[in-house]
Amino acid sequence: MPWTGLRVGYLSAVPQSPINIHSIHAVNSPGLPALRVHYPSTLDLSLRYEGSGRTVLAPIPAGAAWVMLGAVRYDLVNFHFHTFSEHRLDGRQFPLEQHFVHSGPGGEALVIGLFLTPGGKGGTVQDQVLGVVPEESGPEVYVPQAALATSLPDDLSTFRYEGSLTTPPYGEPVSWLILRSHLSIQAASLHNLRLRFPAGDSRMMQPLNGRTVCYRDQSS
Question: Do you find a cis peptide bond into 169, omega within 30 degrees of 0?
Answer without folding.
Answer: yes
